[in-house]
Design goal:
This protein is mainly alpha-helical and 190 residues long. It is built from 5 helices and 4 strands, in the order E-E-H-H-H-E-H-H-E. The chain has a two-stranded antiparallel sheet with strand order 1-2. This is Corrinoid adenosyltransferase.
């Protein structure tokens, strides 16, 4: 099988159920989700410490789920097959967020991306995830989508924030507080 097909040479690409322009909002949505998946892979690649083994396993599962998100977003005609992303996936993210958040010190100020390499890359994942979510919101205004994909991406960005803080904590790196930030967050109720 050849990698190139030449079918996109005139500016269109195949989606599940038809063809659309390569700059279609649908392609932007699943393309940004694919970009996010690449950054998740990069974050995984620097997690060589045993301290991050559970997080690395979670991120590897997330990569598969991001592929599912892209597949659902590429579905031009929802009647062609069932959606892959489910509410259970969102619920699991919430469980992971709570688990990792319980490890970290209270946060009272805004923080800047930084600290360990893993944490910095997880912050990149967070911002790309937010962009993917914005693209999905735009798509949802024009077409029917799997609403669970939007919920998943919304929760996933929270996961990345929490995972970034946890990576710093486990690696002995303090969060980088925004020095001009007043106290804007309440302390955790444990």
């Amino acid at each position: 099988m050849k990698i190139y097909t030449r079918t996109g040479d005139k500016g269109q690409t195949g989606v599940i159920g038809g063809r659309v322009d390569k700059d279609d909002v649908r392609v932007e949505a699943y393309g940004t989700t694919d970009e996010l998946n690449c950054f998740v892979g990069q974050a995984i690649s620097v997690m060589t410490s045993d301290k991050l083994a559970d997080m690395k396993a979670d991120l590897q599962l997330i990569q598969h789920e991001l592929f599912d998100c892209g597949s659902d977003l590429a579905l031009l005609k929802p009647e062609l097959r069932p959606y892959k992303v489910t509410a259970d996936m969102v619920d699991r993210l919430e469980t992971w967020i709570d688990k990792y958040d319980a490890e970290t010190p209270d946060i009272t100020r805004f923080i800047l991306p930084g600290g360990s390499t893993a944490s910095s890359l997880l912050h990149v994942c967070r911002t790309v995830c937010r962009r993917a979510e914005r693209r999905v919101v735009t798509l949802s205004k024009q077409a029917d989508i799997n609403e669970e994909v939007r919920r998943y991406l919304n929760r996933l960005s929270d996961f990345f924030f929490t995972a970034a803080r946890t990576a710093n904590f486990r690696e002995g790196e303090p969060d980088v507080e925004y020095e001009r930030s007043p106290e804007v967050f309440r302390r955790k109720q444990r």
